[in-house]
Amino acid sequence: MDQKNEQQVRHYVQLKKKTYMRNGEEKIMVSLIDVSQSVLYDQVHAENQFLAITNATVSHELRNPLQSITS
Asked: For residue 71, is pLDDT > 90?
């Protein structure tokens, strides 16, 4: 398979460990929880916030000098 066409998919998991007693013995339960959607949502949200702030800053910097010229 051509490596240029492959998309790299990342999966993020959360590991939880719980200790409990059963029949007088200490047992450990380990859970793997897929949090990929949450992580990807947070990344996209952060990118969108960055773009919004950048856009607002550039717009402000362009508008202020033009206001002094046109007044």
From this structure: no
Q: Which of 37, 33, 28, 31 is nearest to 9 (CA)?
A: 37
> Considering its fold, how many domains does the chain have in total?
1
For 25-61, the pLDDT digits (tens) are 999 999 999 999 999 999 999 999 999 999 988 887 7
* Pairing verdict, β 25-34 and 13-22: antiparallel
Domain that holds residue 45: 36-71
**Euclidean distance between CA atoms 11 and 32, whole angstroms:** 12
Tokens of residue 33, six digits: 């929880």
